[in-house]
Structures are given as structure tokens and as C-alpha cells.
Amino acid sequence: MLALRPRLASKLSAWLALSPATTILVVVYVGCTAWTVWISMTASRMLPSSTFVGLRQYDALFANERWQISVSNLVVFGVLFMIASLVLGFLLAVAIDQRVRAENVLRSVFLYPFSMSFIVTGLVWQWLLNPTYGIQAVGRGFGFETFRFDWIVRQETVIYCLVIAGVWHAAGLVMAIMLAGLRGIDEDIWKAARVDGLPPWRVYVSIVIPMMGASFATAAVLLATSVVRLYDLSVAMTNGGPGIASEVPAKFVMDHLFERQNIGLATAAATSMLITVAAVVAPWIYIQSRRRRAA
After folding, report:
1. Where are the transmembrane segments (predicted)?
2. pTM score, two decimals?
């Protein structure tokens, strides 16, 4: 009986220590998420309303041309951003894994963009891509009068400017994840490949990359969540323009929430984004939990 009292006291102390964080999690995250889902099914406009309208807000949302453009922009950005970041990050990791000189310096240089916020990244690339005083102006200053790089002011190409800035920001993080995976590959595999006379590219494609599935999955999930909540990069670089050519769902939500005073439509869009994130993250969490149980 006496031996149980210290255990009970220890458990009680642990629960008391965790209670503030648990309360915040339940009230702020779970509670606010549930409230958002509820408001998305009401007739709320400038102020929240309790008038239930079912899925009417979602019908209006998916019929909204601006939302359709936002989603299509996000799909284009997400596909190009994730592929380019994974490929470039892996190539940078392979290059650093060759035991190059000043490896620590190179790692810091490649990781430095990720230490900045998307606002700073967006402003930097806005200056670089501005036709008046950016890359185009520098090229013409060197005598190339016909040089043209005005993607950021053209509706059909502005989304690719966001991709360039996003890849520059995220490739360093992917490089760090991939480098950790490469350093976990047994050196005996490389020795056996050299004995068999396999070229390095074949070793990477057939052996190394399949063994780094966990690293690729982790990087892909992190990149995917960044894609869904993309907002500040678009606002800093283009503010959704020209027109709405670089509009993204998060900006759609913020504009309708604070500028157009349409809380119902904004929360419907936010709930749709939440479902998208859950669809991406839930399978990854399930796979990780199965791996831990199997181990």
C-alpha cells in the first residue's frame, strides 16, 4: 500500500504538469476547429450567426471562380514546388555527402534561406524579379537590350515565380533531411557496389533511393503542409496579382474573413483546407505508427 502512494503521487504530479498544455490543446485547437466547422454551416456574414444552412456555403465556395483559380494555382505550385525541392535537395545532399571541403559552411549556406520567414523570402524575390530594377534590369545593363525576364508581372507565368522562391526557401531543409538519410546508409553497400562495378548513378537509383523512403516521406509531408498553408509568400511577392493570377486558398480565406466580411464562406474554405491537410498527414501518421509497432 505504501509503495503505491509514491506511484500515485508521481502520476498525479505528471497530470497536473500536463494539464495547462492539455487545456490549451482542447480549448484552443480542438474547440476552435469545431467552432470553425460549425460556422461554415451557418449563414454567418459580418458576424457569426446560428442560422444553420447545411452545405450551402460549400456550394457557394466551389462555384466561386476566385476559389477555383486559387485551388488550381495551389495545385500547380504544389506539384512543381514539391518535385523541384525534393530533386534539388537530394542532389545537394549527394554533393555534400562526397566529403567535400568546408562541408559545415556549405550546409549553413544551403540552410540559411530556410531560417528566414516567407515574408522576407517573398520580398527578396520580388526585388530580384522586378523588371524595373531586378534581374531583367541587370541583364540589360550588361548590354543585352532584348533580355526579358518579367514573369512576375505576367498572369500566365507569375505562379512560377512563387515556385522559384519557394524552392529556394525549402531546398535547404530537404537537403538536411536527405543528408541524414545518406549518412545512415551502410558503407558496406558502397563497397559491394564498387566490387560489382556499378556506376554511382545506378547505385543511387536502384539501392540508395529505395532505402531512403522514410527520408523522402518526411520531406514530402513537410513540403505538402507548407503548400496547403501557403499565404505569406504570395502576399509578399505579388499580393495575389496580377489580378488574381497568383491567388491561393489561404489568401482567399483571409480576404473574405477580414475584408469582405463573409465569415461563413471563409470558414468553409478553411475547413476545406483542413480536410486537405488531414488527408495528407493522416496516412503518414498511420504508417509511422505501424512502423513503430512493428519495431
Report:
1. 12-38, 74-97, 109-128, 157-182, 203-228, 263-287
2. 0.85
